[in-house]
Amino acid sequence: MSFLKNKPDSSFEYKLPANFDANNPEFAIFQNVASEPCYLPKIKFFKKVRIATNSVVFNYFKIIKESCISEKNYQQYQKGYKFFLKFIFPKFNFSKKTFLIITDEWTSNYYHWHIFALKKLAILKSENLIENSLLFLPKKYQRYKFALASLEKFGIKKNQIVFLRRKSNLKVANLALVDAQQQHQKLFCETRKILVENTVKKDLGFGDKVYISREGQVLRYVENEQEVVALLEKYGFKKIVIDKFSYNDQINICRDIKYLVSPHGAGLTNILFMAKNSSILEMASKPDSAKTVTDYYKLAEMLDISYFYQECETRGKVRDFHQGSLLVDLEKLEKNLKLMLK
């Protein structure tokens, strides 16, 4: 499948959450996401350029804009010589093969790796650019087991990866860079297909109702988790701490889930492995009015997963969306469970 030969740019129409209540102010964050433009990805080729350790591409004193995560970052790097002095140490490269770049300054975390880096890799794979190319990665990615394990599923061999140390740059003769910042349903579905179909199926015995716990985390954990788990168990859910499992086991656990409950966090990225027509309930703190966070709602919609939402009271020393812990209203949770399971 070539994504570059699909129809011109279109839009994706989002449905409201399955438990949406127009009279409940908790659901106000979903009222302005009825549709979103979907831009076709583009692969751009460059010759004789350098890649910095932070994945920004440049040529002499010119920054390649498409490699930056934002206009703000692009302007910052292009201004003055600080960027070029920071990444001054070269790594010699004598290969004439095309280099691929899928990373940016955010993709070292679990969510951005799956949603942005692997999306780009799916595009490159669709154009048959993987087999005879080399993949650039910052050296720190050697520590990320999920990154290396997922690359194998796309057909990337270890000898194809070129790691670059901190504050260095790598000069390449040919570079393929994907310009695909927007969400795209077909890309997420293809990414899911590649990851799941290239994982040997294994039954780990957790069944089709799972609660992903943030036990042991310092952010966004559930304050009254003991009571929450007791309620969930009444409805047949099993508690897991997902990051304690291998990458393959995470895929196998989630591919069998029909009903998932989880507080907002990286664990919800694993809905990428869930099948169509499954359901999730996301529990989250009240978002900042200046920047609403609907990432997992949008991802669920594009994967044809039914999405339920529950806003929770924020606790903790720092009471904001990203750092505060959650106090879950059990009565409200039970009501949402009944809606989801009916």
Written description of the protein model:
By secondary structure, the chain is of the alpha/beta class. The chain folds into 2 domains: 17-37 and 202-341, Rossmann fold (3-Layer(aba) Sandwich); 42-181, no CATH class. The protein is built from 9 helices and 16 strands. The strands form 3 sheets. Strands 3, 4, 5, 6, 7, 8, 9 and 10 form an 8-stranded mixed beta sheet that branches. It has a 6-stranded mixed beta sheet with strand order 12-11-13-14-15-16. It is globular and about 60 Å long. 37% of the residues are buried. The mean pLDDT is 91.
Q: Summary?
A:
This protein is 27% helix and 25% strand.
* Portion of residues within helices: 25-40%
- CATH architecture type of the largest domain: 3-Layer(aba) Sandwich
Give the uncertain stretches in residue-range form.
none
The largest pleated sheet is described as: 8 strands, mixed
Percent strand equals 15-25%
Spell out the helices and strands N to C.
EEEEEHHEEHEHEEHEHEHEEHEEH
Structural class: alpha/beta
Number of strands: 16
Question: How many domains in all?
Answer: 2
- Overall 3D shape: globular
Distance between the termini: 37 Å
CATH class categorisation of the largest domain? Alpha Beta
Radius of gyration: 21 Å
Count helical runs. 9
Mean pLDDT, to the nearest integer, reads 91
CATH-defined topology of the largest domain: Rossmann fold
